[in-house]
Specification:
Layout lengths: L6 H11 L4 E4 L14 E8 L3 H16 L5 E7 L5 H14 L3 E4 L8 H9 L3 E5 L5 H6 L6 E4 L1 H13 L7 E6 L5 H17 L2 E7 L4 H14 L5 E4 L2 H13 L7 E3 L5 H8 L5 E4 L2 H18 L6 E3 L2 E4 L5
Parallel strand pairs: 2-3, 2-4, 4-5, 5-6, 6-12, 7-8, 7-9, 9-10
Antiparallel strand pairs: 1-3, 11-13
Helix pairs in contact: 1-3, 2-11, 3-4, 6-7, 8-9
């Protein structure tokens, strides 16, 4: 196992990274004795403008604070969820810093793999969370990277079935996708489609809003013009659900169109209580990074390649919110 005797270089690297997007380290500085043997785990996430990833980062920091004797933590995030170049740069900076493990929620399922291959070649343990890396591209690079996270197809189908039960066969629905090259976006769309087919609903629009609330307003507004009799909108994350809800309100259709999302962020929970949004899916963001970190520590200790670990999801509706 590569220990964190290189932690000083991590600190120096953070001075460079901090000039970019959002970066935090644990409060420790390089120390002597057994603390110097603690591994350094870098958590690299997507946009910290998204509450889902803010919650994920908070869960990771809380876990490290309770386990300071086990590992050091660096938390990294990018400005937005399509800033692939910056996320690649963060991986490369963690390689230069000598991190022992990288726990990553990749912004793209394919584009991050070459950088992760460089990290693996440097002896860094890689754990994939949230958005699964593309299996075919991993094989091309001869990489085996365990995934820790939810089954996005199952979760999307679950919330889609709940929506479908509120509608009548033949009614029109639209799907707002995330980044099309992201595995979780693809699987959520597939889960939505399965639920809509099962319920006999008519999917009249299927467009990407790039996980973004502002883009979701624009895309939804266009769909409402084309399909004024739309009955529902299925959103692949809660940020887009917020944008869809805003567009529906602007169009004077409040209460007429049912909206679902995925992530269980607080703003959406408030709108569920007010019956503006029908439902969302809890993927337990606060635990997701923690599960990935624990997996990384296990891999560092054992030297073994670990199997994938599928984590829980739960439907959130007005009936389940206290």
């Amino acid at each position: 196992m590569r220990h964190s005797k290189k932690f000083l270089s991590v600190v120096l690297c953070l001075l460079v990274v901090a000039c970019g997007d959002s970066v935090e380290s644990n409060r420790d500085v390089a120390s002597s004795g057994d603390k110097s043997e603690r591994p350094t785990v870098a958590l690299i996430m997507k946009s910290l403008a998204n509450e889902y990833f803010v919650t994920m980062a908070a869960g990771a920091r809380e876990h490290q604070a309770s386990h300071e004797d086990r590992y050091r933590l660096i938390v990294n995030g990018i400005k937005n969820e399509i800033d692939l170049a910056q996320q690649v740069a963060l991986v490369d900076q963690m390689i230069s810093a000598g991190a022992d493990a990288i726990v990553i929620a990749p912004a793209d399922s394919k584009a991050l793999i070459p950088a992760l291959a460089r990290a693996s070649a440097a002896g860094i343990v890689i754990i994939n969370i949230d958005n699964r890396l593309d299996e075919d591209i991993l094989k091309e690079y001869d990489l085996t990277v365990p995934f820790v996270g939810p089954d996005n197809f199952v979760g999307a189908e679950m919330v889609g079935q709940y929506l479908g039960a509120q509608l009548t066969a033949g009614q029109k629905v639209a799907i707002l996708e995330g980044v099309p090259t992201a595995h979780n976006s693809q699987r959520r769309t597939a889960g939505f489609l399965k639920a809509m087919v099962d319920r006999g609903l008519d999917v009249v629009a299927q467009q990407s809003a790039q996980w973004d609330q502002t883009q979701a307003v624009t895309v939804t507004s266009g769909i409402l013009v084309q399909h004024p009799d739309l009955a529902a909108i299925l959103c692949a994350n809660d940020n887009m659900a917020l944008g869809a809800a805003a567009a529906v309100t602007q169009a004077g259709k409040s209460g007429q169109i049912k909206i679902i999302g995925i992530d269980n962020i607080s703003a959406v929970r408030d709108l569920i209580k007010r019956k503006v949004i029908l439902a969302t899916l809890d993927q337990y963001a606060g635990l997701l990074a923690v599960n990935g970190i624990e997996y990384a520590l296990d891999a560092l200790k054992s030297g073994a390649v670990l199997a994938d670990k599928i984590t829980a999801v739960d439907l959130i509706t007005a009936d389940t919110i206290n």
